[in-house]
Each structure stands twice: as structure tokens, then as C-alpha cells.
Amino acid sequence: MSRALLAGMIAGAALLASCGRPDRSGVYLATSGRSATLIRLAQDQDGAVTGRVETIAMGADGVVSDDSTSLDAAAAKQALAFKGDAVTLSRNGAVVQARKRSLADFQKAVAHLKREAELQRHNVAEAQPQQAARIAEASAFDAAPDKASKLRDATAELRADAARLNDAVSQAPDFGRQAADNTARLAAMAQQAQALPRAGRRALAASANQALVGSNQIDVARTRYAIDLDRTVARAAPLAAAVERFCEGPGGSSYASACAEAVAAATGFESALVHAATVFKGYKQTVQTEIARQTELVQKIGG
């Protein structure tokens, strides 16, 4: 073998080694129930990686925070560990595991997080008035001159509110089924995409994204429906608690018959509340699980 040919083979091998270096550039995403972390990385020709980390997080009070920091080559080398299409970020004592995704995936995760934060802020805002309402209802029973009449009114109100909750649950759309139907549509699209050229896959991916948007809208509708039910709960729950407090206390013994009906009505309302909460918790879990599956299918369709 000639020296020229050997030198050419060595040079070619070096070139192949350089080209074979994994490209770390791209967008990586890590999500949890309370945060979404975006890691944007760029790798230069020498293999050095730099980037930026942005974390959107939801606090216990529903307030959303946004924290971002830059990574120079030295910091990135120390903080990042790669495995396939995944990266582990270690900084400030915290470890974040992320996978390659797209900026659109991050935006969807942030939108979902902000919806959850809005609901949590609503719950926090409702908690204090409900506590005040419980105290007010309890005082109303103690101060009522005609306690038998007060108990009869409470019985009628609690029965009506229990019926409202039960009717609302029975008439609610099956949000989980709606989201699952979209998943089935996307699974069929993913099968179809395998036989399509790149241009056809792009067109199909656009339709797939619309289906995913539709599922996010289902989640919004579910949240709004639940918030509407909360208004009934905010009115009736303090009344049920006041009825039980009064009737189980020393004053209730003088109104045994009225208390029996009122406590039964309070128990009926609380049963309706537990049923509604169970149903809507199931819807929430199903819709969010289906959205996660759909996100993966959309990525698969887009290639």
C-alpha cells in the first residue's frame, strides 16, 4: 500500500470520526405537574456546547414564575450529561432529565401549566370566602329565632343543590371519551404517515396538530365546567357543615325531627359532592393522559 493511499485513508477516517460526533444542538424538554423546563443547546464545529435554560414553575398559591439562565461552554460541560436523545442537567443541587422535543411542545406544556395555575388560584381564592361562609352559616343557626324554620329551609336548599350536582354530572360531556377519540384519530394518522413521502407527512402533521389543539380545548372546557360546579359547592358546603354542627350539638336535641331531615339532606349533598369530584377527577386524569399520548403521536407523524 502506498504512503499516499495510507495517508488518504487516515484522513478519511478522521473526517468520518468528526462527522460521527453526536449533534447535541436542539431543544430539550422536561415536564412535571408543576413545572416545564426548556433547555436550548447549540454545538459548534469543535463540539463545544452552549445554551440557555428556562423553567416555568407553578407555586403552591397558583402563581407562575419564570427563571432563565445561560450556559457557557464550561458550565455546560460540567452540568450536562447526554444519553441518546436525552440530557440530564445538574445545577444548584437539582437534577432535571429532559428529552429532545420542539419549541411548540414547550409552549403547549406552558399553556397547560398556566391553565392549572389559573384553576389553583381560583381554588385558593374560593377557600377563604368558604371558610368565612361556614362561620357565617354557623352563626346564623345560633342566632335564628325560629330554628325549626331555619332547618326546613336548609333541608330544601341542600336537597336542591344535591340534585343540581347530580344533574350536572349526568349531563356533562364525557370529556375523557372525547380526548380518547382524538387519540384514536391520531393513531390512525400515524399508521398512514408511514407510507407517505415527506411532503405528505408534513400535510398530515398539520392536521394532527389541529387534533391536539382540539384536545387542549377539551381540557379547557372540562376546567370551566368544574369551576361552574364549584359555585354550587361554595354555597351549599358551608350550609351542610352548619346543619351538622347544630344538630350534633346540644341545641339539636330540641329539634329531633327537623334535624333528622336536615342531616339526611346534608349527607345527600355531601354524597353528590364526592360523586362529582370522583367523576371530574377521572376526566382530568384521562384527558391529560390522552394529551400526553397525542403529543408523542404528533411527533411521530411529523417524523
Kindly list the characteristics that best describe this protein:
7 helices, single chain, disordered N terminus, Lipocalin, elongated, alpha+beta, seven-stranded antiparallel sheet, 303 residues, 2 domains
Describe the structure.
This protein has 303 residues and is α+β, with helices and mostly antiparallel strands. Helix content is 68%, strand content 17%. It contains 7 helices and 7 strands. It has helices at 3-19, 73-79, 103-143, 147-171, 175-193, 198-248, 256-302; strands at residues 26-31, 35-43, 49-58, 64-71, 80-83, 86-91, 94-101. A 7-stranded antiparallel sheet has the order 4-3-2-1-7-6-5. Strand 2 and strand 3 (49-58) form a beta hairpin. Helix 5 (175-193) packs antiparallel against helix 6 (198-248). The longest helix has 51 residues, at 198-248. It is elongated, with a radius of gyration of 29 Å. The model is unreliable at 1-19 (pLDDT under 50).
